[in-house]
Amino acid sequence: MNSHLSTEQMYLCDICADVLFDKEITLPSDFDVDELLKEANHQAVLPIVCTAFKKLSLKSEIAEKQLFLSTIKNAKVSYNHIEIGNALSQNGVEYVFFKGVASAAYYNKPDIRTMGDVDILIHPEDTEQVHNLILNIGYTTNDDITKKENHIVYVRRLNGVRSVCEAHFKVSTTPDAVADEFNNCFKTVFNDKMEIKVSNGRCFVPSHFHHGIILLLHTATHLTKEGIGLRHICDWAVFVNSFSNDDFVTTFEAPLKQMGLWRFAQLLTLCCQKYLGADKKAFAGDSDEELLDAIIADIISGGNFGFKDETRYGHIKYISNRERDGISQKGAFSQLLMSINHKAKTKYNFVKKHKWLLPVGWVVVVFDYFGLVLSKKRKLDNIDTINDAKYRQSIYNEFKLFKKENE
């Protein structure tokens, strides 16, 4: 496999292939169990590894305990979905749950997919009604629902357990060049929704088509920022494996080319084939082994949402203006200035209301950054930070994100 991966990381990919696609593997008797479980935790695939231990008759008290704990956590998250979904349905509110519970439905055993927050998509005009219903269930929020543009975060603490629900008005921000394509795509997301069964009830999730678009958009957004980890790649692997090659092409090729996500879908699929044992798909094209090695190494080095390597947060401002403009083609200094400008315009209300205060916004952005450095929440950027960011940028440029096929 990839020389950039450690022995435990290579074993981890093999284990995922075994559990997800029943690929026969052999693990040496002397592999480091603790290191493997630690890596699995960084990648948010602990339930998969612990399930593999049972399947392979490997004894580990830690793995058994982790499997028990993840099963309980997933059951609680499923309960939260059903509780919120029932409240909305009973009051005539249209919704779909997306990401976590929708992704789990494509696994041969949904409970092996690590669950996190409840992500729900609603009509913007239903915001106040949804807000009141979620508060009635026992959640609270510090967000001002009259000012949030993308989503509102709700938190509940019940018997010492913290649960998070994010009510979204849109799936994600997309570059202006392809905004119309994404908006047109999601116009039918509520009409085309599917009902699925979870452990303690039923709920609505996006159609196969909409789920695929959401997966790609969510993965691209986080990969090019803090990172995604192996869990997201497993999500794509089981999803794309549920299609025949021809059905995937018929469903996705034309719209993904218009949205600038076709090449990204091809490369993710090739990674899933090489590292996770997913079925080969002709639409993915030929393998570029060096590029695939670089992609998987980048994914695993960061871990789930940058959990493994927090220095990746320092790279973002040199790579892009978040997801707004895709991946930058500019040099490090030019991109840094653009990121400062973008953050000042989008983060601070005084700049939004008074454009002439933009220079003040630049000062505040820089001041905030050094405040994080002094509080040790961020490390001071150095030449290694910039070089690492530019290397990641060179990989992401291969995705051709948000570049229409004819560009």
Whole-Å distance between the termini?
34 Å
Radius of gyration, in Å, reads 21 Å
Total domain modules: 2
Strand order of the largest sheet: 1-2-4-3
The largest sheet, given as strand count, sense and whether it forms a barrel, is:
4 strands, mixed
Provide the residue-averaged pLDDT. Answer: 89
Structural class: alpha+beta
CATH class of the largest domain: Alpha Beta
Oligomer: single chain
Beta-strand residue percentage: 5-15%
Structural summary, described in words:
The protein has helices spanning 7-21, 33-42, 46-55, 61-90, 100-104, 127-137, 179-185, 208-223, 230-241, 245-259, 262-276, 289-302, 316-319, 332-347, 349-353, 358-374, 383-396; strands at residues 95-97, 118-122, 151-158, 161-168, 194-198, 201-205. It is of the alpha+beta class and 407 residues long. The protein has two domains: 7-306, Beta Polymerase, domain 2, CATH 3.30.460.40; 310-399, no CATH class. A hairpin with a 2-residue loop joins β5 and β6 (201-205). The protein is globular.
Record keyword descriptors for this entry.
407 residues, 17 helices, 4-stranded mixed sheet, two-stranded antiparallel sheet, alpha+beta, 8% strand, single chain, Beta Polymerase, domain 2
Q: Secondary structure elements and their pairing?
A:
Blueprint: H1 7-21, H2 33-42, H3 46-55, H4 61-90, E1 95-97, H5 100-104, E2 118-122, H6 127-137, E3 151-158, E4 161-168, H7 179-185, E5 194-198, E6 201-205, H8 208-223, H9 230-241, H10 245-259, H11 262-276, H12 289-302, H13 316-319, H14 332-347, H15 349-353, H16 358-374, H17 383-396
Parallel strand pairs: 2-4
Antiparallel strand pairs: 1-2, 3-4, 5-6
Helix pairs in contact: 1-2, 1-3, 3-4, 4-6, 8-9, 9-11, 11-12, 14-16
